[in-house]
Design a protein that fits this description.
Blueprint: E1 4-17, E2 23-30, E3 35-42, E4 53-59, E5 71-83, E6 86-93, E7 96-102, E8 113-121
């Protein structure tokens, strides 16, 4: 069984063209407003649009169930910052950066370790 570290349901609040051509920055806010995710993706990997409901999950191993509209990337957690009551986790997913800021500490996430990040519509 593949261990799931984190599961977030939320909304894509914005999709903006980044400074690098064809790279978009997605801002996702969890339904409970506890977590904000900023994710860079190439336009060819686009699975959601602004205003869409989204599910973001982090796994220790490659997830077995992947839909045709899902994005799954192998990411490397290279930085953890803690400030006041917030924790910030910064991943590199094949060179694309994902930052996850949460009011909750996610103790299962360890610095300098690989994880699988899955983004799904709905």
């Amino acid at each position: 069984m593949v261990k799931k570290i984190l599961a977030i349901k939320g909304d894509v609040k914005s999709v903006e063209l980044g400074k690098i051509p064809k790279i978009y920055l997605y801002k996702i806010i969890s339904s409970d407003k506890e977590t904000i995710v900023n994710l860079e993706l190439h336009e060819d990997l686009k699975v959601v649009e602004e205003g869409d409901r989204v599910s973001l999950e982090i796994f220790e191993e490659k997830p077995r169930r992947v839909g045709e509209k899902d994005f799954v990337g192998k990411g490397y957690l290279f930085k953890i910052e803690r400030e006041d009551s917030k924790s910030k986790y910064i991943f590199s997913i094949g060179g694309f950066i994902m930052s996850l800021v949460s009011n909750k500490s996610i103790n299962e996430l360890k610095n300098h370790k690989e994880y699988y990040i899955k983004v799904s519509p709905g």
